[in-house]
Amino acid sequence: FKVPGETNTDDLSPAQDAWSRPDIPLHAQAMLKNARPGIEPDEDGVIGPITAINALKEKGFPLAYVGDVVGTGSSRKSATNSVLWHMGDDIPFVPNKRAGGVCIGGKIAPIFFNTMEDAGALPIECDVTKLNTGDVIDIYPYEGKICRHGSDEVVSTFKLKTEVLLDEVRAGGRIPLIIGRGLTDKARAELGLGHSEVFKRPADVADTGKGYTLAQKMVGKACGVAGVRPGQYCEPKMTTVGSQDTTGPMTRDELKDLACLGFSADLTMQSFCHTAAYPKPVDVTTHHTLPDFIMNRGGVSLRPGDGVIHSWLNRMLLPDTVGTGGDSHTRFPIGISFPAGSGLVAFAAATGVMPLDMPESVLVRFKGEMQPGITLRDLVHAIPYYGIKHGLLTVAKEGKINEFSGRVLEIEGLPQLKVEQAFELADATAERSAAGCTIKLDKEPIIEYLNSNIVMLKWMIAEGYGDQRTLERRIKGMEAWLANPELLEADADAEYAHVLEIDMSEIKEPILCAPNDPDDARLLSEVTGEQIEEVFIGSCMTNIGHFRAAGKLLDRFKGQLPTRLWVAPPTKMDKDQLTAEGYYGIFGRVGARIEIPGCSLCMGNQARV
């Protein structure tokens, strides 16, 4: 079953149907519900191409999902659940859930690849140009080739991402494999037996003798070693784990599957930012039941209306530590995070560690002087702009090149940024399909940030947020770092897959991204004269300064705006401050739509353009 071009996780698990995600068979009906080239939904905008999928299944062979670019965008485990509901295998004695299946992509986004691994599927990256809907193929996993059925004609070749992938398929998923392998090892150690030969062990990566990058050192620290080489399997300690409310109910189900009664991760936080605006009855039920479930296990629960998960979670971070979150924009501005689907987030929260095949790194080095009129957002967009210029990125989906995909972006050259500004750069690495991001910052902005964050956490305790012990423990962790502020640094001889240098003195005009593709970076002069109907100021990419700047411009405008302007600040604290400073009055006067702090406009479950 081939879907030409790019399928992102919103195609596979539409945002407007987020309410039904925990009900996998029901939610799977919405997969690919919007008509597109090569795909004819049963009911456009409501039910996906179920008839076409069932017709292919009637041929009597297992069905593989094929696409040029698969699984980009949000970190939705529900996208994997939907694909596997149509193309996976029943799990004995477990209703309404399937595992296994085969997914073949020219490029498979790293988080989607990982959620496929967790579910026991076989994800394969290879050239898909000779594969078409209805073809019958033979896959040779050990030989790394795909042939036309019943012939020796090779239509594509591949290399499995890891040696352990086939064990994961046999075990019904990466998480059952890790737990089963661990139990086996402990039992054999107790009996005085050697290592089991049943499992394929992750291969050790040869030490190059070179230095480590910042990311490799951070992950190394979380594993109790100096550094971790690319390709090395490891299980770093999870210091901070985030969960949001459209994945939260699935994470709750996964935590029950793991029989988790208390979190092992030092801090696990649950937000309610994706469903706070105009909630459905099922969302209201989640708002009432999920906080206690999280707090009873030692987690921290926010409240509907508090705002965006990242704006809060970032203020709970410890420098140079590792974490994860059930949202693709979980990109720590201090430390490093590897965002994941709800299953892996549940595993990380429950066990306090996370399985990781250490990715390679791409170094992005800024140099030169920032020019007048250029903002930080232009530097964010300079990464894809210069990536295209240097052949690291293409906009076309067929045969797409994306050298950032699945790698860690390591950013240098802007050490004086405020931590909120650093997050703007880190956050946008999600749009590059990067596995993670590090930013080299000086101690001063981090010290200032942590001092402010301690005040916020103490305020949260005073306001009755829980779990109180978890918040107190995190305050102590911050105070301990402030007493002896040390930061890891990349070695001068560290090795990178690519080095991208961006000279800020060359950037003389703003850089924008054309809808609907964040890779499609254009100079302002290239799009001058374009008609604009909708404007949105909000999301985790914004801070209070953006709203003040917009307010100052709008204050000089008399009358009603000719466009539709949506405004949604990231947190309730920003909302209160902007109200106190009179900016809400300005937004209201010009006819802006002011929305509750949160993520629903970005995600698309509130309104669509």
Automatic annotation (TrEMBL):
<keyword id="KW-0479">Metal-binding</keyword>
<comment type="similarity">
    <text>Belongs to the aconitase/IPM isomerase family.</text>
</comment>
<feature type="compositionally biased region" description="Polar residues">
    <location>
        <begin position="1"/>
        <end position="11"/>
    </location>
</feature>
<keyword id="KW-0408">Iron</keyword>
<dbReference type="GO" id="GO:0051539">
    <property type="term" value="F:4 iron, 4 sulfur cluster binding"/>
</dbReference>
<dbReference type="InterPro" id="IPR050926">
    <property type="entry name" value="Aconitase/IPM_isomerase"/>
</dbReference>
<comment type="pathway">
    <text>Organic acid metabolism; propanoate degradation.</text>
</comment>
<dbReference type="GO" id="GO:0006099">
    <property type="term" value="P:tricarboxylic acid cycle"/>
</dbReference>
<dbReference type="InterPro" id="IPR015928">
    <property type="entry name" value="Aconitase/3IPM_dehydase_swvl"/>
</dbReference>
<dbReference type="Pfam" id="PF06434">
    <property type="entry name" value="Aconitase_2_N"/>
</dbReference>
<dbReference type="GO" id="GO:0003994">
    <property type="term" value="F:aconitate hydratase activity"/>
</dbReference>
<feature type="region of interest" description="Disordered">
    <location>
        <begin position="1"/>
        <end position="20"/>
    </location>
</feature>
<comment type="pathway">
    <text>Carbohydrate metabolism; tricarboxylic acid cycle; isocitrate from oxaloacetate: step 2/2.</text>
</comment>
<protein>
    <recommendedName>
        <fullName>Aconitate hydratase B</fullName>
        <ecNumber>4.2.1.3</ecNumber>
        <ecNumber>4.2.1.99</ecNumber>
    </recommendedName>
</protein>
<dbReference type="InterPro" id="IPR036008">
    <property type="entry name" value="Aconitase_4Fe-4S_dom"/>
</dbReference>
<dbReference type="GO" id="GO:0019629">
    <property type="term" value="P:propionate catabolic process, 2-methylcitrate cycle"/>
</dbReference>
<keyword id="KW-0816">Tricarboxylic acid cycle</keyword>
<dbReference type="GO" id="GO:0005829">
    <property type="term" value="C:cytosol"/>
</dbReference>
<dbReference type="Pfam" id="PF00330">
    <property type="entry name" value="Aconitase"/>
</dbReference>
<keyword id="KW-0694">RNA-binding</keyword>
<keyword id="KW-0456">Lyase</keyword>
<dbReference type="InterPro" id="IPR015932">
    <property type="entry name" value="Aconitase_dom2"/>
</dbReference>
<dbReference type="InterPro" id="IPR015929">
    <property type="entry name" value="Aconitase_B_swivel"/>
</dbReference>
<dbReference type="InterPro" id="IPR018136">
    <property type="entry name" value="Aconitase_4Fe-4S_BS"/>
</dbReference>
<dbReference type="GO" id="GO:0003723">
    <property type="term" value="F:RNA binding"/>
</dbReference>
<dbReference type="GO" id="GO:0047456">
    <property type="term" value="F:2-methylisocitrate dehydratase activity"/>
</dbReference>
<feature type="domain" description="Aconitase/3-isopropylmalate dehydratase large subunit alpha/beta/alpha">
    <location>
        <begin position="302"/>
        <end position="528"/>
    </location>
</feature>
<dbReference type="InterPro" id="IPR001030">
    <property type="entry name" value="Acoase/IPM_deHydtase_lsu_aba"/>
</dbReference>
<keyword id="KW-0004">4Fe-4S</keyword>
<dbReference type="InterPro" id="IPR015931">
    <property type="entry name" value="Acnase/IPM_dHydase_lsu_aba_1/3"/>
</dbReference>
<keyword id="KW-0411">Iron-sulfur</keyword>
<feature type="domain" description="Aconitase B swivel">
    <location>
        <begin position="1"/>
        <end position="212"/>
    </location>
</feature>
<dbReference type="GO" id="GO:0046872">
    <property type="term" value="F:metal ion binding"/>
</dbReference>
